[in-house]
Amino acid sequence: MPKRKFRFTPKKKADKKTTVGAKAPRKALGSTPGNPGVPSGRYLRKRKLDKEFDKGSHTTDDEDALPDADEVPSSPDDDETKLDYETDFAKFPLDAQWCRGCNDNPGSLKLTCDDCKHVVCYGGKGSGACLVLTPTAIKTPPWSHFVCPSCEHSKQPPGTKSPELVYQGFYDSNGTPISKVLLEIRNRQFTWFKPIKLEKLAIVQLQVAGAGEDFGILYEIAVMRASIYASAPRPTISTFLLAPNLPSCAQPSFLRPTFLLAPNLPSCAQPLLKSKIEFDFGTEEGMDRYAREMVNLRNAIDSMGIQRVVFLVVTHSDPDTGDIHFAPENTGAERLEVVMKTLFTPATEDWLRLRETYLFMIVCGSKPFTTDAYKYLQALVTSRSFENILLFPTVCLQPHELSSFLPNLLEHILFRHEAVEPMIPVVLKELSGLGLHTRILHLGLHVDTRGKPTCHAIRHVWTHGTRRPWGLDAPSYCSSCKSIKSFRGVERIHRGRSVYVQFKCYGSNCKNVITISLTPAESKLVRGPRDAYGDWQQHEFQWDEELLERF
């Protein structure tokens, strides 16, 4: 098969910034008016970057771990180099511990479960604590061992019915239950028996240079929600490098600040690292800058011992080709797989495979899907570079529409440790507005019976009895009678093995009928309720050009 040819178009200055996708010439990454760049199909540039900048990504050598202070750009703000952890970065005290019952860090007394090491707050009547104890027990604690309700519940014999569940909780040194201690259990969370578990986390946004402020709304909200559970530095990578009294990979562990050595208990707050990195692959300098920042990011995450990383890739796409913008002002675009291989080099992919990773593609402008792009994303999953990828393939994606969905989902899977696949419909349940705006595609890692990794794709679609029956958008305008919202007649028709949906116009003297065939996947859906909320449904996704057109 002949190699694909690339056309090089002189850079045109955009008339104005746009927050939605716009046309951009397909160009080789790194190209400028005086530099044609390297043909993207060969990826020679990428290998060069790996050799130059990635060589220190898996080492603790002092020279390779982080750039020297002289290599870090100086800041015009002198105060930025005098950052103090307690003043500038501490969200909560290091000894803060979250109660597994109320998911809060209350000022009341706390007990540590001897089994799971979570803590539970306790107090007397009117204290608002999760465990209400007798005044005598509070004044003179008679117990030697404590087991929280969740752990005691899990020890019940299989098949035990709810009325037969008995909670003792408080035991003496011989393991004998102590009576007259507990008065009341205040259960105010669905998660009492599946509590939050706080772990170190990094949230990273990779965004095309020149993107509008609205592109950062998801990142900012996600960081704010995650910071509720954090007690550690929350710097960008540049701040991380500029602060001399913050940790660096080059420091031995015994010289690092104590907050990195805080007890790694499930109830203790853990570090949260945030980073927003812009990419401009239109020039060699831009590609070099991005490569250095990614090495800095990896080193910072390694130094903090973070194993869970969330990436948001934010950019535009060409409305005709679906090519991803890799430079500001609509000056260059390339196929999704080409841009992604530059964002995540082989060295970065190897590094990602050692971690729990999530990728959200926030691409505005078109549906960045081709057969090759879809295969590439599947390969990212099966290679374990990203165990979960979520895409929102709509023509004009607006990031603010995801402002409820994405942070809520992250909170469930990162802090409440719910499984991703079953939690998506739970989070979507009350987001009918999002359903009108976009469908959602989730690519998740599964392992078959032979132990082979596979990519399981699920399409989530909002349905409504009249507005979107079987996931199809009801026509809003009749070109025959010029009526608006007149297609009130909806009927499902079977013709042999094919299934169709007919929309009938009820305009004045109009007999217009629009017939749309359902794909085999869509035919498994139900019509949807007629109430104001509709219903989210999901089905397995197989590559289908017809389905993709109305994704």
How would you describe what is shown here?
The chain has 551 residues and is α/β, with parallel strands linked by helices. The protein has three domains: 321 residues, no CATH class; 77 residues, no CATH class; 72 residues, no CATH class. The protein contains 15 helices and 19 strands. Helix 12 packs antiparallel against helix 13. The longest helix is centred in the middle third of the chain and has 20 residues. It is globular.
Distance between the termini: 30 Å
What structural class do the secondary elements suggest?
Answer: alpha/beta
Radius of gyration (CA) equals 27 Å
The level of helicity is 10-25%
What count of domains describes the coordinates?
A: 3
Q: Low-confidence parts lasting 5 or more residues at pLDDT below 50?
A: 1-19, 34-53, 55-90, 232-262
Tell the overall outline: globular
- Major β-sheet annotation: 8 strands, mixed
Average of per-residue pLDDT values: 78
Strand content: 15-25%
Strand order of the largest sheet: 8-7-9-12-13-14-15-19
Distinct helical segment count: 15
How many individual β-strands?
19
